[in-house]
Specification:
heterodimer, A: about 170 residues, alpha+beta, 4-stranded antiparallel sheet, 3 helices, 4 strands, B: about 450 residues, globular
Chain lengths: ~170, ~450
């Protein structure tokens, strides 16, 4: 297994190289789901007060436009034109835990100086967007836990060895 | 395994570099995509086809190469090219495994020639793989990635399609992780071409071989763990002593569970809870009497808790010393032949740990500690301080390597056996238990969310 650091031509010519570093473990209670997809950092943040409610929050890559609303599209009261709410702040904080600052910054196209908090480098505005797409991706994500296991061989997993996490 | 056996394995079999070079030309063509095949890449595709001249694949692959360079490949042309590249690595696999078998003196069941795969049901997956090859890795965008999702979702629950689903999901996950690919610094060209070719062939070919029931005593050697964002596989390597008293055979049994990327480390064992007997056997290092358990021609047991009776405790090192020199190796299905598939159990003793490997006294084997799974107790330090090791021999770009599955090492001055599966029923190390408790139960949290939100 050749690690993430691409050195020499061997990396391109090896079958087992680590492309997607394993995500780091983090507590899932507050932000059960987040991803870098569809040109956004997007995720679902559990409401602090109502166990039945979740917020859908996202930052767009490039523009850093942000949005936060409940999954039923009610706007989050904490978000204003210029300021991200606590759900959005949590989303960024948890994303940097999960993926590392560098990967999140690269995806969002942020110039983050060494050691800077990523959230302070995002200078977008509030742009409301429908929550449905992200919420359905969250449900799709949860649906993996409902897929039954299988005892049939999957030899293709030879390309995906488990690794020690840091 | 002895120093002289290791020495006999050194030196790459003839032709491996040439095969790699032929494949590399094709792999580079996939970077910019088949729609924009420059002169150099067209020549590489033609050269790959030319290598098959005179073989049964020759004409078909030549026609495919011509169609690709003319810019109008059919699905069958893509299957033919994926088949050619797969055959190339199949020959490398066979040469390497042959070297290993003759060095270890391991005899091996040959694949029954009459077994060929049933025709597949090429459909949506092949259409997506075609788009992917035409765009090239550099041309992959969020749109193309999102079109993979419904395809994978359908395959995940379709009978007999799990292999392809798991492969495509892992592959698409890597493409997503590298996004935007147009500006990704370097691309894993060999790897992604491997995954693309295997996926194309899995879609074009159906399952191969039917299981036959086997009975006997199963002794576990160790457990290999594979994992990507949405799948984890626990693969047991063991020795089956057939109840008819015949030669012991090397077998494997695997459980593959779906997961999400935030479930990692010891938490993955909880995903296998449908197989409590297996988990108990692994954590308790017990032997197993199996009766009538289905086994595929490749030595793959289809594990069924209902076919086993748990026996006495069995030290994997006793099993390894008793059986590994004489047990028969399993046949490998043609579609599965690729150097990454080589994983032959061996036991090593009396070595001296040196930087990056074990010195067996005249020959050194590299030890790959990057593959020690985070769901088990093995660490690089334990491996380094070990006095005996059961592992899988694998082959990588750097030659032969040992992937440790179990070690004998001194823990608090007592010689102890530690293996990757020791935590199958939960971590036994108090420090890890504490860390687990602090991090919270990832599976539990997500299931609570799923229960509350999914069926509304």
């Amino acid at each position: 297994m050749i690690d993430g650091s691409p050195d020499g031509v061997a990396w391109e010519r090896a079958s087992l190289v680590r492309v997607a570093p394993p995500v780091r473990p983090r507590k899932l209670a507050k932000v059960p789901f987040l991803e870098l997809a569809d040109g956004r950092l997007q995720g679902v943040v559990s409401s602090g007060s109502d166990i039945e409610r979740v917020y859908v929050s996202s930052f767009a890559a490039g523009t850093h436009a942000f949005t936060c609303s409940t999954n039923n599209n009610r706007p989050c009261g904490g978000v204003s034109a210029q300021h991200a709410c606590k759900h959005l702040q949590l989303l960024v904080a948890e994303a940097t835990l999960q993926y590392g600052t560098q990967r999140v910054a690269r995806y969002l196209r942020v110039e983050a100086p060494e050691g800077a908090e990523l959230i302070t480098c995002l200078r977008g505005h509030h742009e409301p967007a429908p929550a449905a797409a992200v919420f359905s991706r969250f449900l799709r994500h949860l649906a993996y836990l409902e897929v039954p296991d299988s005892t049939a061989p999957v030899p293709e997993l030879a390309w995906f060895p488990a690794t020690a996490v840091g | 395994m002895l120093a002289q056996q290791l020495t006999a394995m050194q030196g790459a079999p003839a032709g491996i570099d040439d095969a790699a070079e032929l494949a590399a030309g094709f792999d580079d063509a996939l970077v910019d995509g088949l729609a924009r095949l420059g002169e150099e890449h067209a020549a590489a595709v033609t050269a790959l086809a030319a290598a098959f001249a005179g073989s049964p694949l020759g004409e078909r692959v030549a026609a495919a190469a011509a169609a690709v360079t003319a810019g109008s490949p059919s699905d069958a042309d893509l299957v033919a090219l994926a088949g050619a590249r797969t055959a190339l690595f199949g020959s490398v696999h066979d040469a390497l495994l042959g070297t290993l078998d003759s060095a270890l003196g391991r005899d091996r069941t040959s694949w029954p020639a009459e077994l060929s795969p049933a025709p597949g049901r090429p459909g949506a997956a092949l259409a997506w793989l075609r788009e992917l090859a035409i765009s090239g890795w550099r041309g992959v965008d969020d749109g193309l990635l999102s079109t993979a999702e419904p395809v994978i979702e359908a395959l995940l629950t379709a009978p007999g399609r799990r292999r392809l689903a798991v492969l495509l999901d892992g592959f698409a996950g890597e493409l997503r992780a590298g996004s935007p690919l147009a500006t990704m610094a370097r691309l894993p060209t060999r790897r992604w071409a491997d995954l693309w070719c295997r996926a194309v062939l899995l879609d074009a070919a159906g399952t191969v071989g039917t299981p036959e029931p086997v009975s006997g005593r199963l002794l576990v050697l160790g457990v290999d763990v594979a994992e990507h964002a949405t799948a984890v596989q626990v693969q047991v390597h063991g020795v089956l002593e057939p109840s008819d008293g015949g030669q012991a055979v090397l077998v494997r049994a695997a459980v593959t569970a779906a997961k999400v990327e935030t479930i990692t480390g010891p938490a993955v064992w909880a995903l296998l809870r449908r197989h409590p007997v297996l988990l108990g056997v692994l954590a308790g290092r017990a032997s197993v009497e199996v009766s009538g358990m289905p086994m595929l021609p490749g030595g793959e047991l289809l594990w069924d808790d209902g076919c086993v009776a748990v026996g006495e405790a069995a030290d994997p090192f006793v099993t390894a010393r008793l059986h590994l020199a004489g047990a028969r190796g399993a046949a490998v299905a043609p579609i599965d032949r690729h150097p990454v598939a080589i994983a032959e159990p061996v036991v090593l003793e009396g070595y001296r740990a040196v930087e990056g490997g074990f010195d067996l006294g005249g020959a050194t084997i590299a030890v790959d500690t990057s593959r020690l799974p985070s769901c088990g107790p093995l660490t690089p330090a334990l491996v380094k301080g070990s006095t005996a090791c059961i592992g899988l021999l694998r082959h990588s770009a750097d030659g032969w390597q040992l992937q440790p599955l179990a070690v004998q090492a001194k823990v608090k001055r007592a010689l102890t056996v530690l293996s990757t599966a020791d935590w199958a029923l939960g971590p036994t190390d108090p420090a890890v238990q504490k860390a687990q408790a602090k991090a919270g139960d990832a599976v539990g949290v997500l299931q609570e969310r799923a229960g509350r939100l999914l069926r509304k």
